[in-house]
Amino acid sequence: MCNCDWSPIRNRSLSITEVGDSLILEKISEEILSWPGVTTDLHRFGGTEFRLGKRELGHIHGDKLADLPFPMQIRDQLIESGRASPHHILPKSGWVSKWIKGEKDVTEVVKLFRMQYKRLIGKSLQ
Fold this sequence. Notes:
Layout: H1 7-10, H2 16-33, E1 38-42, E2 48-52, E3 55-61, E4 65-69, H3 72-80, E5 85-86, E6 95-99, H4 106-124
Helix pairs in contact: 2-4
């Protein structure tokens, strides 16, 4: 269950677009935070960071962009398949970006975080 404080979002006047966007972020956060061992904090460059222990699963900037780190081989596969784009600032790194254009992208963003979660859980068991 999400231990996020959504009151700043709920306690101000929002446009219809903002309401939809904040609910998208809330849906993504609630799903990721339901996985054992996942915590959240503010990301150093803004947004919400999701962690498994000391490892970052990835982060979401506002409600429009998710960034996740992967080994280069996985990163290349995600980009070639169209599931993600090269990182918006560090395109040659292992990081990928997934633009969140609307509710239709929620499932794919969660799948990318789940892929990263499973990868890191496997590493912690070794």
